[in-house]
Write a structure and sequence with these properties.
Blueprint lengths: L15 H14 L9 H28 L10 H31 L8 H34 L5 H40 L28 H8 L5 H8 L11 E5 L7 H15 L6 E6 L8 H10 L4 E6 L6 H7 L5 H16 L8 E7 L1 H9 L2 H4 L6 E5 L6 H8 L18 E4 L16 E5 L5 H4 L29 H11 L14 H12 L6 H13 L3
Parallel strand pairs: 1-3, 2-3, 2-4, 4-5, 5-7, 6-7
Length: about 550
């Protein structure tokens, strides 16, 4: 019996209409988005955009063919398509440097190298050629399966079944077998790095710090992120040097509790260990107690808590419990709820003890988290369980685009306030800050529970929009000062641009993208906690200190 379907040979010319559409996507991918990109990342993004749009047009053409629509294939079409596509791509490459410099200007960065078009072409070809070849292989597999099934099924039904079966097979292998292997390898590698002990970082001698001789946790069990956190500045001497000492607020050694992933088997056991360590260190006798949920790797941004320790002259206790080895962006894309269970157990254990203390003899309780840590921190406290004894505030920085509370607050913003800096009601519960500070709420008071989000409009961790595939993001109307005026929304391409920005959001200069500056942490903690004994001169000294060390 004759074959019902045929497929294109591996090296058959590309479809002209799809080729032109792919070239347009290639060029649009080089236009500005949120953050500066390297030439290699531009090439990767342009190549992926070309393949995605090319494949979409080919699929649409296949659907029309399946429906019996006639095809128009003039003899000159292949040559004309190639010429038009080449002209579009060449135009994009000649403009790529200027477009990227527009983003750099918005981020306060110097111009990029002039050889960038050559880098883009080399990387893009390395992406396009294998993916197109893979597409032809998939097409051949679908056709082979359809021809076999057409012996006992109607032709169109055979093709539909073959397409579904092949797609399921490739998805299962790619997402399950290959994806699982990659994740296991990454997790294993991260675990080995986490176990490293730096020779020049000895165990602490301060009993108020986890990993010391008096601690319930061994120095080795803290992991790399935990050891970095408890060993971070400032020391008592550094606090006294900048903040000054006075009789009303003498300088103290900050309490820093950290529980590594290897310290106990379950989230419940790690939460109990964290509470026991807080009790050992006298954390509930401090003025402030902060539950700082770490990022995916267990990382706690040094400036996020050291600024608070300076502002309160060390009269602060902080606690963090690790839940993963994976980078936040990877955990966010693979399993957004990764770490929520640990965050809930930690909050409940600490909050249950805290609320039983006399109100006039317990510390003010705050939640804090950066990136994925902000999401898990949001999810840690069930509002119905804390109404009788709410925490004093939450300072969430660089929230992810999946943060549930952040999404609700942003959606309920007052008319006229931009999506990148919303104003919600009178600001009595939640306020949003950017590099330019917190919007003016007039004389409206901040309530007893204060929630503050610090977010940069150029941060794709926060402003990645899956629906930008087909819809213009709201935060482009109006756009923020650190978003290039040349950024234009293009269906499909903009989502790929934002995805690339999400992955590269950590590699920007301080104060842009996902790199949050210490001076903005200072502003946030001042607004949240009203630290006493500071004047403009001392605050300026503190800001200059962090600027000098590049934080």
């Amino acid at each position: 019996m004759a074959r019902a379907f045929t497929h294109k040979p591996l090296f058959d010319p590309l479809v002209p209409v799809a080729l032109i559409a792919g070239a347009l996507a290639f060029t649009m991918a080089l236009t500005p988005s949120l953050i500066p990109r390297t030439g290699a990342l531009q090439g990767l993004l342009a190549g992926a955009s070309f393949v995605a749009v090319y494949a979409l047009i080919v699929v649409l053409g296949g659907v029309l063919c399946w429906l019996g629509m006639p095809r128009w294939r003039p003899a000159w079409g292949y040559w004309a398509g190639r010429a038009i596509a080449a002209a579009i791509i060449i135009y994009g490459l000649t403009r790529a440097t200027d477009w990227q410099n527009a983003v750099n200007a918005a981020a306060g960065m110097p111009p990029v190298e002039t050889a960038r078009p050559f880098i883009i072409v080399a990387v893009a070809l390395a992406v396009v050629v294998p993916l197109l070849a893979l597409g032809r292989i998939v097409q051949a597999a679908v056709v082979a399966a359809a021809n076999r099934m057409s012996r006992f099924l109607p032709a169109r039904l055979a093709l539909t079944v073959a397409l579904v079966l092949t797609a399921t097979l490739f998805w299962t292998v790619g997402n399950g077998v290959l994806g699982g292997a990659v994740l296991r390898a990454l997790d294993s590698g991260a675990q080995q790095v986490d176990a490293l002990i730096l020779a020049d970082v000895p165990p602490p001698t301060d009993p108020a710090v986890s990993g010391s001789a008096e601690s319930l946790m061994d120095w080795e069990s803290l992991g790399a992120a935990g050891r970095s956190r408890v060993s971070a500045f400032p020391s008592v001497a550094q606090i006294a040097d900048i903040a000054g000492d006075n009789d009303a607020h003498p300088v103290q050694s900050p309490v820093r509790v950290y529980v590594g992933l290897n310290a106990a088997e379950t989230p419940e056991e790690r939460a109990e260990l964290a509470l026991a360590e807080l009790l050992r260190t006298g954390a509930f006798e401090r003025e402030l107690l902060v539950i700082a949920t770490p990022t995916g790797t267990g990382f706690v941004h040094p400036s996020s808590l050291s600024t608070l320790e300076y502002l309160w002259r060390g009269d602060v206790a902080t606690v963090s419990v690790q839940y993963s080895y994976l980078p936040s962006w990877l955990a966010l894309l693979v399993d957004p709820d990764y770490g929520a269970e640990t965050a809930r157990e930690v909050f409940h254990a600490i909050h249950d003890h805290w609320r039983r203390l006399p109100e006039d003899a317990r510390p003010r309780l705050y939640l804090h988290g950066l990136s994925l840590g902000s999401r898990n921190s949001e999810l840690s406290a069930d509002v119905w369980n804390i109404l009788a004894a709410p925490y004093d505030g939450a300072f969430w920085v660089g929230p992810t685009f999946t943060n549930p509370l952040w999404k609700q607050f942003t959606a309920r913003r007052n008319p006229g306030s931009p999506a990148w800096r919303p104003v919600v009601g009178q600001g009595s519960l939640v306020r949003f800050a950017t590099q330019e500070g917190i919007p003016d709420h007039g004389d409206a008071p901040w309530g007893p529970t204060r929630i503050l989000y610090l977010q940069y409009p150029s941060d794709a961790i926060t402003f990645f929009s899956p629906d930008s595939l087909w819809k213009r993001p709201e935060w482009l109307r109006p756009r923020a000062p650190d978003v290039s005026p040349a950024f234009r929304w293009v269906p499909v391409v903009t989502m790929l641009q934002l995805f690339a920005d999400l992955v590269a959001a950590f590699r920007t200069p301080i104060g842009v993208g996902h790199a949050y500056a210490a001076t903005h942490y200072i502003d946030g903690w001042i607004a949240m906690t009203d630290p006493p004994g500071w004047n403009a001169a001392r605050l300026q000294t503190l800001r200059e200190f962090y600027t000098a060390i590049g934080r």
